[in-house]
């Protein structure tokens, strides 16, 4: 964790996901190289494999953290930031509730950050009259720990 952080998590692919990505990249590279082994086909195959692996890395680079800066505690989800003074309630969503929260019943102005390989998360209900966003849905492998960090931060803001 970095200085001032109370919680940090990266939404990277699990090992099984990386194995599947590498297998798909090798298969795509091999299938794109049928026929003779000309330099442009080999180059295209290598570029395709690199693109698939780079895409998987890019999807898993997303970071969730609770950090203090400027005297206030903030929830950081990639580039989005939420001050704890705007949080009204934090709920842990288990797999079924998380799936339902991301479905068609979701509010159209809700902010949602999810990854297909993470099946749990939090609903963070907002209390900010200047913000039309009713709540955030944030994926997390350890939603209980994230909720504990957010709850402690909210209590320090209220005190």
From TrEMBL:
The chain crosses the membrane at residues 12-32, 38-59. The keyword Transmembrane applies. This is DUF3093 domain-containing protein. Keywords: Membrane, Transmembrane, Transmembrane helix. It holds the Pfam family DUF3093.
